[in-house]
Amino acid sequence: MSKRFIQVALPPPLARELTYSTPIDWEPICLGALVVVPVGKQFITGIVIKENVDFDVQSADIRIRDVNQILDDELITDEILKLCEWLAEYYLASLGSALTLALPPGVTLTSKRIVSLKENVRFLNGNVFQENCIKACDVDEKKIIEQLVVSSSPLKVTTLQRRLGRDGLEKKLLSLKRHGLINVVPYLVDERNHPRKELYLQLIDRKAAETLMPDLLTRAKRQYECLQYLLKDISVPYSKLKDLGYSSSVVNALEKKGLIKRLTKEIIRDPLAHIDAVGEFDIKLTSDQHQVVNLLTQVLEKRCFHPALLFGVTGSGKTIVYVELVRKALSKNRSAIILVPEIALAWQMVRQFMRYFSKEVVVLHSQLSRGERYDTWHQLRDGRAKVVIGARSAVFAPLNDVGLIVVDEEHDASYKQEDIDSNFPLNYNARDVAVKRAQGSKALIVLGSATPSLESYSNAKIGKYTLYRLSKRVDNKALPVVNVVDMTREPFQKKQRTIFSKSLRLKITDRLQRNEQIVLLQNRRGFSPYINCSSCGEFLKCASCHISLTVHRKKKNSILKCHYCNFSKPIPSTCESCGAEDLSFDGVGTQKVEDELVKQFPNIRVIRMDVDTTGWKGAHDDLVERFRRREADVLLGTQM
Questions:
Q1: How far is 24 from 2, CA to CA, in rounded Å?
Q2: Neighbouring residues of 308: CB distance < 8 A, sequence distance ≥ 6
Q3: Residue 3, pLDDT above cutoff 80
Q4: Full-model pTM
């Protein structure tokens, strides 16, 4: 039997496709499989993108290396593989970079190198000996040998870099290897995520247990109590019994009597466990909503690609249309993807959808833990969940038979992934990728917005998309009155223009007196967007990015921070250009607005919602829920 050849896409920093052979005794490797392959002196994880590659080894006069290991037979579906191939070609990126977007977290193996001394090598009195011969080594090489002798075990190259520095270390290792003093070999570190397992105790025979209960009551009271607990709940986590004070000896005794058995269960790390799933379906549609849903339902039943632009005014009930369309898709045993531009919106959308679809709904975004994303990804791949809600990355969710994709607020710039700092930049628009995925899945895609993007509206006008309208608000409610205030006419306070106009101050006071809540938007976070020197007019800028540094107020001390590269430093007391002490904090950020609210409105309760206050998992959902429970008078934020 001859060898088979496959093509493997490798992730950055290699970001290229290489050909490998499979060992003769192996079964054929499927497309989309996750494999470990040798590259140079290390091992790298890659994705199989072509099978049965036609390759004449003899005419090429080269040696093709074997695949080292198969980690997952079919990690990437054919549909997602084709989508990533299109993305790589369309956005001029490597296929390896594109495929990393579709991988679940923590599925790859990492290759590291270890250094060990060869046999009969000793280090004594500053000299290196091998088989009674003194080897000529320079000072740096002797330091490496000394580290290996002192540790008395192999060391990672990264450990040597940390102890001795990176400069010139690779050359020294190569020299020592050529002299036959050390071995440098790669090895695989398994840092992959795995399903979370928990030990459970389960009652085997209820009748036998009840028969034995009187005897245990007199002879082994702890066993009696433990068994009584298990009779109430047949399967109980072992950890729970330990917390209740039942020792391992009690459990072992019941197990020997044949009353209970141990079993291991997979525990799903569910980020939505704290949300009550109702599963109701009392939806009343307006006439406009009913018309749109009927038209789009006909498209769903045809199982064909159909791009629809839903142009609905604010408050027209676009979300209810999405809910009804998801219900129709699920009734056809098809799955649905709901994209939102911000993580904060994802949590709000999840709460709305879980009211109707209960545990069919999962959320997928970057703020989840690795374990939660791993479990969610596998729930989708295995078909245990059929509706995914998330930001950009959710467009690559491993759902089977996608029938509906919704891109809410399709005009939002947050759908654009910008990665210009990377050596292997991957920039894409998740809205356009969603359209391409819908085309490959023969699915209905709905682009919803009250203010559609120019390109989407143009596509609708020329017939590339079909335009649907929701021109009225639910219950014919009037749109809110918008007042534009010219801040240049507002009076100064302490030589600075006031943050709040007179009109806004009066309205805030009025709403507080009426016990109503307030939402304030400010488009910059931090305290002040820049520091200006009044003497020379210079702004303090980031040395790397050449953009102004933002002032951030902390409890102990304030700092200057670059919102582009995350560089930070203390605030100087004098101008770095002219040495003057006349520095002013110009501009308004959310922190300054919060300070002014507290100063001008005593006892006001403020929740600030920006990048600085939502860095932890579930923060968006928690802050909005606190506001909904009326724990604050004002919700202040950048984008909500």
A1: 7
A2: 296, 299, 444, 445, 446, 447, 465, 466, 467, 468
A3: no
A4: 0.78
